[in-house]
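Lecture 7 notes. Example A: sequence first, then its structure tokens.
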Amino acid sequence: MASFPPIERSVSLAHCSEIQEIALIANAVNLLVPTADDGGFHSPSIDEFFPEVLFFAGTPFEINRIILIRFIAVLAVVLLFWIGTRRMKIVPGRFQSIIEMGLDFVRVSIAEDLLGKVDAKRFLPILSTMFFMVLAMNLTGIIPFLNIAGTSVIGVPLVLAIVSWITFVYAGIKKSPAGFFKNSLFPAGVPWPVYIIVTPIEFISTFIIRPITLTLRLMMNMIVGHLLLVLFFAATQFFIISLSGWFTALGVFTLAFGLVFTLFEVLVAVLQAYIFTILTAVYIQLAVAEEH
């Protein structure tokens, strides 16, 4: 029988001991944090916002779950407004009344309140489109089988923020072609030497920070809302189905919190659509102010 020298034997035993320790640690981790195969708890992760491609993989027109949800939201808005306005009546029916209430909310509470009737009429189409588009895509986060907001990935919030910024710049140039940028970057009443500090700050805050904050405010609210809802309902499934027993009581609490937070997410969806639209109206109002 072959025998190993003392040094090799000790190295071999030490190696075996290390393997045993690693195996024990891995087993302990598996017991404490169950894997996906044994029905364990799975916390939400950022990977949910980057789902697998469903159609046209490997092309510039790849469609994943979130993009498909965006298409559904846009189609739903177009369909609702087409049905609600195709046969307008002097005495509106119930559905036409709902559509008119929504449009009047944007017209009166946002556009006319900030821009006045003349400018509100000019910019009402884009403000209405923004409000209902953001609202529809926000609400997909709580609709069964969709369960994620179309605005929770940067694409749509960024595009809408750029449109808002372009509208702001267009309105300012249209109102005062010669004075818009001058009044924006060189506020009146400031001593000339101070412009060395003020002008770069005004440029960054007016023309760079605004679209960034519009984008991040909308996107981050939708991301956090989705992660919290997934956390509540995943915990409910884990406590009631995977663990059962007295853990069911915890599942009841997480389910209740999930349902309450779902209602809260409806409020957040409406509020974020309102904030995005009203900030766009505020920027337009600043652009068309008399000093420009």
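Example B, a different protein, same format:
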Amino acid sequence: MATVVHDFDWPDRFVVGTVGRPGQRTFYLQVRDGDRVVSVGLEKEQSAVLADRMDELLDELMSIEGNPASIPARAPEGLDDDDPLDSPVVEQFRVGMMTLGWDPSTAQVVIEAHPLVEGEPDEEPNPEESPEVLQVRIPVGAARSFAKRAREVVLAGRPYCPLCLNPMDPEGHICPATDDFL
């Protein structure tokens, strides 16, 4: 069976967003180009790691002497996207694995999201065997803005306990780092 590729090159919009209240949020990676919108579900931790890795990649590229791409150190003014996800949010698939790369021929960051595949616990997923893939290519300024928004979305959830670092529910928190928990 052929892999279904949802390919976006220089999309109008590429963001991480959520649906639901803090503590019950579902995270989505959403891309739009014209009327075409694809949303894939992912975990909060995947969102945070993608933002961190994207900034690390851009920082590394920025440090290369003679790099022809003009990599900004921060998200450029005017590229912030604080709008909610495009509705309706229809999950195409749940993300299992992501890859991040750099295309020097177009000076774009390349993000691939592959669906979660049930398999053997010790078996590494093979992206070449994915039934579907979301592939997005974005310029460096948009990549910085994406990472900034993703980090803000992740941090907009429940506050973390300073002792155990677990999220605290509005109804209360029993901290496993205190004697009260034992």
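Note on Example B: Residues 4-181 form a domain with the Secreted effector protein pipB2 fold fold (CATH 3.30.2450). Strands lie at 4-9, 13-19, 26-33, 36-42, 91-103, 108-115, 132-139.
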